[in-house]
Amino acid sequence: MSAGSAFYITTPIFYVNDVPHIGHAYTEVAADVLARWHRQAGDDTWFLTGTDEHGQKILRTATANGVTPKEWADKLVAEAWQPLLQTIDISNDDFIRTTDERHEVNVQLFLQRLYDAGYIYTGEYEGYYCVGCEEYKQQSDLVDGTGQYEGQLVCAIHSKPVELLKERNYFFRMSDFTQRLLDLYEERPEFVQPESVRNEIISFVRRGLTDLSISRQTFDWGIKVPWDESHVVYVWFDALLNYATAAGYGSDDEKFARLWPATHIVGKDIARFHAVIWPAMLMAAGLEVPKQVYGHGWLLVGGEKMSKSKLTGIAPEQITDTFGSDAFRYYFMRAISFGQDGSFSWEDLSARYQAELANGFGNLASRVVAMVTRYFDGVVPTAVESAVTDAELAIRATERRVTAAADEAIERLAVHEALTRIWELVDELNGYITTQEPWGLAKDPANADRLATVLSTALRGLGTLAVLLSPVVPEAAAKLWTALAGVGTVQEQSIRSAYDWRGGERVQPLEALFPRIEVDAS
């Protein structure tokens, strides 16, 4: 992607039936890292997140808590979902709620256009419905219940009984788009990724699509169908449109033309909605399909998907209160291959914090800045060409190599791979310092040029790291940038030429980027 092009990225909008756990935060951080990287690359970047507030699940949760659905949503958004963004340092450009007027009005506009074009008709539907998923389920999506649900069919995702519903609703002619979707997947293999999710989607569509029930009459918490207010819009049909309404669909044509299409980061369990229903909706409306739908893996705790209902949900602040937001962001982007399932453990988090952040990166930064302060009174040394050896040339080559490799990985949304490439520079700089022994060079004035060259090289490498790591550990990168007297803010630096950064004449004191943490093993 060339600098200056548009990069519109979204997370799913999350249900407000409960507070967020680290599975939600994982998705937010992944999208945020990608957004920050593209901003630093000079791309016209827009990052959207938000909340999904309609549907039967929200209505039931609110009723159980003795409040209206809107009161419930307002409380959860204000007290849990928006604070989450500060807890994990998310840089979203917009936050949309499906109860926003800008959304509701333009959902109705979209629906009316499809109705007028003949893509919507009335009909009856009977099937098994999972309130947790807000979706009618195929028989293949159900399993036999166990324990208290023995003898009942339960949702394979939520492990709770489904309900047999029969309704007269409005239907979207989704079956008309079976072949067009298959052609899309064939012509654009990158449209659905990773490969495992793409294969599942293709297999599902090849079995043939049925028309989609897009309205409900049995409850009234939702957006009214514009030509029949006795119906509300099916929550997924409503929710998927947030990506378009937030980008200006129906209200700001210029903005929509500039931003659309989007890259959608979603959990693999909802990839089917985004890679089948959503592009079919857009095709029917004559709009461009998304740039990409990426269904990442699940966070597992004790071998099971992160879930509040199964008591495996971990609140993000349980981690950030001890380790900080940077460590949270780094851990989940480094420890889990993006696109695959990954297991979380406190032991792994603690070990990576100590070994990779505190000892690897943080100690490297502290040592180099301290040595410049001690041996050059804080004045940034200049490399002396006559004292440059193959060791320095190797560091310079690594800076360029990892910058290009990380950017290429980001283009594939392989955030974990980008971090692995960047960490090659961390490891090489640590090895370089150990081998060159600047503390030994400082003992002999005859080695002054060599000492200046070694510390200049190390400082240059640190600045490159500050730029490259800014999308992942923004607080630590900003502190390091200040200590290096970098010009401007680190977020303003061009990430695709991170090695060309400029700094001032003197380093500043640097507090520990990742202080050592004593973890209670009891």
From TrEMBL:
SUPFAM superfamilies hit by this protein: Anticodon-binding domain of a subclass of class I aminoacyl-tRNA synthetases, Nucleotidylyl transferase
Intervals of motif 'HIGH' region: 14-24
Subcellular localization, as worded in the UniProt entry: Cytoplasm
UniProt key word DNA damage: no
Any one Pfam family match given in the protein's UniProt record, by short name: Anticodon_3
The keyword RNA-binding appears for this protein: no
Assembly with partners or alone: Monomer.
Chain's role: Is required not only for elongation of protein synthesis but also for the initiation of all mRNA translation through initiator tRNA(fMet) aminoacylation.
The protein's name: Methionine--tRNA ligase
